[in-house]
């Protein structure tokens, strides 16, 4: 049996295991990032042309590419439909970017913490992951400059809006400074924005990609958080120097994205119906976030520090008394509570103990206090045991 | 700009360019492998549960996995649903297999000729592609043994049933002997069967995967040739030692396959409606194949040799007077005729001049003679010019 070298870096996915365990209906799960079932819109199929059953272009449906380009231009990204590549979910952007850039040992810059599946994909391809701490306004700019000065990273992978897992939204000033640094050092930007539309306090900020003057860039998004994840329709928009390579890599990966999902996405994007759906979605999630904040204040004030996220789906808690939160999982699951340990969101988990990611959209409101109370109890007991040891 | 080393191996796809040029309605295209539009079945959506809009399991829908496993068992492959991985089209099986096995320089065995996109995907990942000539009954067994004796290939990628592009169907005897060789040398089999159900003369043969006693295997198929390619639903079935790795690679690639297409596939597989659809499909394609054979006899008897394919979508012609058929493309396109040159289907194109792949399902019957007549004329002129030079 001779597998490739990369298979030795193929980790069992902690998320997979936790989510599988959290499937039991009695489990109160703060672990996943699933949209609320109640808010999945009903879809209509009337009018879909029969040709959507045929093979389609690798680039994606022309009309969908136009809609996505128009949406990006409205966000300040100067682009044409010819730069839009429709993907089988935005996870595929990570796979294509890894193929485009990463050989064994290739250096890349990520936020610490960052999106777990991005970290795993880049590491699978052999990347050397360099971290920049995330502060309340965005990445630590001095640390970012230092990484650019001391290394030659192939790209910087950033999630500037309602970052997963930290919930951080880069300020306007920081966005401009990050863009300037990328331009200064000629580092390609990969900007991942799945949560942009899930904004609850009226705050918005234009993408970093639109602020670049020289650096190459890939901007990626999805309809999974606003419409239906089951469609598996995401997209990337790339600077013209990168697009032809990404297109060929997409074709080699799966020929093209399924056309049923693309057609559905086309029925929504840019419509009044979509705007109304987004407004309802924001109201729903805002209410859940606020309820979570109240419950956290009651059960976690003495245990952890956190900021109220202005968007996205997660609270990010930092324990006042650090403990490897992976060690809490078994006890929490025994209490029918699931959560996501924070350590795996860092390139160096052992050096970053004591954070938890808690989703606020899934647990039913009437079980919220019970769930958080049990989780707090698990933490208290573990910390007491640690102190006694 | 520092791309990965693999990007230097990212070829512009000749197929892409030919197919794009063949889009013009006046072009008579023998180039692609698209199902006939007239035979795409109408699909119904009534009864699809709302949860199909939510994230789904990376493995695929449980009920679909059961159906696919049952179908494979009926073909002699002893397997369980737990070994089935639903894919975003069977092209994805090539991507996942490449990730699982191929480092730069990894040796793999393929048929010569073989599926162009497989060759490109394996080469993209850095494979050293070793070829075994395809004879009328399957691969040259002595050559296959020699490759296994002289090299240590990570796998053998084979298309035993209505091979693309050659149309060859391995005989029963050859299937058994290939299985025995794979077992003897412990070489993993990747068996690709997109065309199995497109059989026109009543011939069938059980997969090689079901004949193995020791070697690991991946068997891959799709609903693209029998239902709707736009669904982007394919699958692989793997021996239990390989499955967990392939599952994790699938998750890293795109989380899971779109659920709309999976649900559609579930409505058809194993039903009487599907069997009736397949029967109509075979009648339709058989008629087109027979018409093509008649037209070829008229226009190509003096130019080329070929066998009538018993299934699939292609004739494979070998010119009596070899010429690099890539050089014929421009002249053919100027005559509004598209075809697929044979050279790119070989790991060593320059050493294998003079073959053409002609699809028989796409060109309308009333234009068939005109298209083949023009193509024959282009070949005659090129050969005359070559002889005069």
Automatic annotation (TrEMBL), chains A, B:
One of its GO terms (biological process) is alpha-amino acid metabolic process. The keyword Transferase applies. Pfam families: Aminotran_1_2. CDD domains: AAT_like (cd00609). InterPro entries: Aminotransferase_I/II_large (IPR004839), Class-I_PLP-dep_aminotransf (IPR050859), PyrdxlP-dep_Trfase (IPR015424), PyrdxlP-dep_Trfase_major (IPR015421), PyrdxlP-dep_Trfase_small (IPR015422). Signal peptide: none annotated. Residues 46-375 form the Aminotransferase class I/classII large domain. Keywords: Aminotransferase, Pyridoxal phosphate, Transferase. The keyword Transport does not apply. GO terms for molecular function: pyridoxal phosphate binding; transaminase activity. Its cofactor is pyridoxal 5'-phosphate. Belongs to the class-I pyridoxal-phosphate-dependent aminotransferase family. Homodimer. This is PLP-dependent aminotransferase family protein.
């Amino acid at each position: 049996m001779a597998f490739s070298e990369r298979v030795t870096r193929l980790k069992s996915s902690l998320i997979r295991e936790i989510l599988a365990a959290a499937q039991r209906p009695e489990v109160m799960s703060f672990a996943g990032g699933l949209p609320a079932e109640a808010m999945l819109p009903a879809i209509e199929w009337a009018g879909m042309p029969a040709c959507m059953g045929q093979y389609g272009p690798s680039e994606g449906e022309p009309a969908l590419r136009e809609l996505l380009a128009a949406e990006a231009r409205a966000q300040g990204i100067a682009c044409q439909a010819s730069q839009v590549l429709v993907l089988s979910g935005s996870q595929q952007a990570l796979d294509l970017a890894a193929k485009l850039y990463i050989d064994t040992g290739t250096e890349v810059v990520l936020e610490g913490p960052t999106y777990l599946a991005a970290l795993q994909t880049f590491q699978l391809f052999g990347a050397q992951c360099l971290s920049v701490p995330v502060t309340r306004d965005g990445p630590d700019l001095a640390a970012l400059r230092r990484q650019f000065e001391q290394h030659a990273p192939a790209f910087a992978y950033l999630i500037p809006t309602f970052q997963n897992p930290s919930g951080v939204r880069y300020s306007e000033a920081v966005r401009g400074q990050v863009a300037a640094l990328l331009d200064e050092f000629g580092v390609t930007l990969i900007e991942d924005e799945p949560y942009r539309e899930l904004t609850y306090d009226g705050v918005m900020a234009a993408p970093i990609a639109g602020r670049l003057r020289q650096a190459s860039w890939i901007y990626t998004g999805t309809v999974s958080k606003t419409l239906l994840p089951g469609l598996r329709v995401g997209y990337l928009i790339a600077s013209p120097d990168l697009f032809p390579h990404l297109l060929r890599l997409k074709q080699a990966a799966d020929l093209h994205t399924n056309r049923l999902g693309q057609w559905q996405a086309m029925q929504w994007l840019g419509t009044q119906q979509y705007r109304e759906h987004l407004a309802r979605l924001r109201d729903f999630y805002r209410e859940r976030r606020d309820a979570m904040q109240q419950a956290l204040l009651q059960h976690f004030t003495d245990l952890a520090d956190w900021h109220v996220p202005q968007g996205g789906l997660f609270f990010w808690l930092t324990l006042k008394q650090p403990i490897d939160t992976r060690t809490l999982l078994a006890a929490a699951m025994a209490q029918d509570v699931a959560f996501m340990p924070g350590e795996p969101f860092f390139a160096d988990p052992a050096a970053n103990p004591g954070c938890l990611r808690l989703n606020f959209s899934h647990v039913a409101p009437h079980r919220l206090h019970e769930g958080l109370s049990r989780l707090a109890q698990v933490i208290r007991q573990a910390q007491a045991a640690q102190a006694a040891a």
